Amino acid sequence: MKNKALFTISFLGLFVAISISAQSEARFGQIPPEALAMEVFPGDSSAAAVVLHAKADYQIFPSAMYGSELEMRVYERIKILKESAFDEADLRVYRYTYKERSDHLVSLKGRITLPNGQFYEISKADFFEEEYNEYYTIHKASLPNVEVGAVIELEYEILSHRMFRLPAWYFQGQYPVVHSELSVDNQSTYSYTTLLETGTEMSVYELDDGRKLYKLGNMELFAGDGHFMMKNAPAIQEEDYLTTINDYRARVRFQLSEQRDGVIVKEVFTSWAEAARALEDRDEFGKNYLRKRHYKALHEALQPEIAGIDDPLEKAEAIYRFLGSKVAWDDELRYFPGQSPDELLEKGSGTSADLGIALTALLKAEGYEAYPVLISTRGHGKMTQQYPIMDQFNHMLVYLEVAGRALLLEPAVEYQPFGSLRGYSLNGYGWVVNAEQPVWINITPGNDEFKLFCNLDLSGEGALKGDMVATYHGISAPGERSLARQFPEGKYWNSRLPEGAAFQNLRRKDPNKASLSYAEQIEVRHETAGNVVNDYLYFQPVLFSRFLNNPFKLAQRHYPVDFSRPIREVTLTTINLPDGWEVDFIPESQHRVLEGEGVAFDYKAEVIGHQLKVETRIEINQLTFQPERYAEMKAVFEAFSEKLTAQVVLRKP
Fold first, then answer.
1. In the chain, what are the domains?
2. Which of 25, 144, 362, 633 is most deeply buried (CB count within 10 A of its CB)?
3. What's the CA angle centered on 111, arms 110 and 113, to 5 degrees?
4. Can you say whether residue 117 is alpha, beta or left, with left for phi > 0 and alpha for psi between -120 and 50 degrees?
C-alpha cells in the first residue's frame, strides 16, 4: 500500500523553515544554461518533457473582512524535449468563481525561453477567460514559437477566502519531476489536518532535524511541519483499468480541523461521528430529510403511488420509481445537496445529492431504515478513512434496510434497476451518514457479462455482411441502455466497428426497461474486411471485442490494475465462406490462464462444412493486480489481443 501520514498545520505560524537545495530558489525568467542545453532527460530518455521545478507557497493570514484569507503563489518550469509536449505552451490556470465565494487572481504571467536564449513573455492582460463549469473559470493563453528544447514558465498568485479546505498539491504528473515543493505558512487562527499520500509504497526514515524522508530508489520525499519537497519523481502515465491517476500521484491534502476565536476553540470534523452529527444538524443536509416541512409536498404526492402496497420490498421499489418519474437527474454528481426535496419537486431536476436526500426523506417517512451514503466515484479517486476529509466525496447513494436485506440505491433512478449500482460507483466502500452509527461499508460489485453473436457472409472480393447481436448482463446493461437513449441512432457503434465498416437497421430490446439485461441487433457491412492478393484472401473474422486492442501498453506500471467488477466476454462468429475458395490457414486454438486463475481466455477457430466458426472467451475474476504482477498480466492480454486480430487465409484451389 502507498504510504499515508497525517500532519497538523496549526494556528499562529507554527511554520518550520527548512534548509533546502538551491533548486528551491528558482526565479521566473532565470533559466540555468544547463537547462537550456538539455536534449534528453537522463532520468528518463523517453520523456517528452520534464518538470524542472514546481513550487507552491500557501500564506494564511488574518483578514478583517473574512476572518482569514489564503494567498497562493505558484511557479512551474517545464523543459520541452519532444514535439508531443508542445501543448505545454498552452497555459491554463483554474480559478474558483462561484457566487460571492470567488477567488481573486492577483497576478499571472508566462514565458517561453528558446534554446538560443531568446524569450517571449506574456502578462495577465494576455490571458483570456473562459467558463469551465458552474464553479470554475479558466484563464488561457498560448505561448508562441514553441520548439524542442524550449523552457516554459508559468507563475501566478491567487487570493482566496475559502478556508474550509486548502487546495491539494500534486508532486507528480505525466512527465518526470526533478523538484516539486510546497510550503505552508499559517499565521491565522485556523488549524488544518494534512494528509500526505506518497502514491506508492516507500521506505520511511526519521531525520535528525525532525523531518521524515520517504525514499524509493532515486525518488525522495521530505516532509516536515508546513513543508513538503519531492525530488526525482518518475512520470505517472494514464492507462486503462484504474480509478483515477490522481490516486497514485504523490500529493498533500488539507482540511480545516480547528478554529480559535480568542480563548474559544471550535473543532471541525475531528472524527467521523462528529462529521455525521454536523451534517445531520445542517439545514441544507440532515434537516432536509429529518424535518417534514422540507419534504411535505413530495411526500403527499407519493401517497397515491403506494396506496394498497403492503409488501415492504415492493413498496420501497415503488417509492424509488415514483421519485424517478417526478424528477430528473441533471447529470451532476454531488455529495452535498443544493435544494430541499420540495424545491427539487418544484424544479423537476437536481444533482445526485438532491435526489439522494429526497429518496432518503421518502423512505424514512414511510418507516424504513435509510441513510445517505457518501462516496467518491472511480474517476474522482479513492477515499481515506483516516480522517473526515469531506471533499474526497463527490456522489451520494442511499442505504436501505428492507425485508432483512441491506441495499444500496443509486438516486438517479430513471431506468436504473432497483438495488443496483452504476459502474462509476464501484469504488470499494462508502460512508453512511448516521450520527448514531457512522460506519464505512463495503460496496460489492455485481458481474458484467457481454456476448456478441455474429452471423456473416464473406464474398470472394473480401466483403463481410450480416447480423450482429450484442447482449449485456449485469453492471454494463444500464449504461448501454443510457447510451441508447442518448444516441437513438446508435452512432457509438461507429467507434466499435473496424474502419470501413458500417451498420444499419439497429433494433433494441426493451430500451426503456429498468433491467440488468439488454440487447441490440444491427446489420453490418464491411466492404474492405478482406484483402485479395493473387489467389489468396486474408481477413480478420472477429469484428469487435472490448479487448481487441490490448489495454495495457506501458512497459512498466507503478500502480495496481483495478477492474472494479468481474468481467466475462464471449464472442461467437459464424462466417459463410465464398464459393470457389477453401481454407488455407486458421489460427491455432489456445487456452491460457494467468497463474492464480485471475484471468483466463480461450480461442477456438474451426471449419465445419463451408463455414468458419470462431469462438472467443475471456473471464476476469480477480479485481486487483499489484504492479509486480503487471508484466505477466499484460502478456496474457497481449496474447488474447493477438488471437482476436489474427487473420484467416483462404485460397483458390
1. 4-16+44-261 (2.60.40.3140), 272-442 (3.10.620.30), 448-651 (2.60.120.1130)
2. 362
3. 165
4. left
d(CA 397, CA 92): 34
pLDDT of residue 4: 75
CA–CA gap between residue 522 and residue 525 (Å, rounded): 10
pLDDT of 1 reads 53
* Owner of C-alpha cell 480563548: 263
CA torsion sign for 452, 453, 459, 465 is: negative
pLDDT of residue 341: 96
Q: Which helix (H) or strand (E) holds 325?
A: helix 312-326
- Assess contact for 114 and 98: CB atoms under 8 A: no
Q: Do residues 517 and 508 lie in contact, with contact meaning Cβ atoms separated by under 8 Å?
A: no
DSSP 530-567: EEEETTEEEE------TTSS-S---S--SS-EE-SS-E
> Are 154 and 91 in contact, with CB atoms under 8 Å apart?
yes
Q: Cβ neighbours of residue 132 under 8 Å, at least 6 residues apart?
A: 94, 138
The residue among 454 and 100 whose pLDDT is bigger is 454
- Mean of the per-residue pLDDT values of the chain: 90
Structural element, H or E, at residue 453: strand 448-458
Query: What SS3 state is found at 226?
Result: coil
Largest CA distance in the chain: 97
* Measured CA distances, 422 to 68, 194, 383, 462, 478 (Å): 41, 32, 18, 40, 7
Question: What percent of the chain lies above the pLDDT cut of 90?
Answer: 73
Asked if 266 and 258 count as a contact pair (C-beta separation under 8 A), the reply is yes
**Distance (Å, whole) CA 90 – CA 84:** 13
- DSSP sequence for 507-524: EEESTT---SEEEEEEEE
- In 10 A of CB 97, how many CB atoms? 19
How much is the pLDDT for 12? 38
d(CA 559, CA 552): 12
pLDDT grade for 19, boundaries at 50, 70 and 90: very low
pLDDT on residue 55? 97
First to last CA, the chain: 61
Q: What angle do CA 84, 86, 88 make, to 5 degrees?
A: 115
Please state the separation of Cα 259 from the chain's center in Å: 33
Q: Give 112's contacts (C-beta < 8 A, 6+ positions apart).
A: 89, 119, 120, 143, 144, 145, 146, 150, 151, 152, 153
Per the model's pLDDT, the better-predicted residue between 291 and 17 turns out to be 291
Q: CA–CA separation, 507 vs 523, rounded Å?
A: 9
Pairing relation of β-strands 517-526 and 464-474? antiparallel
424: which DSSP letter? G
Residues paired with 259 in a beta bridge? 190, 266
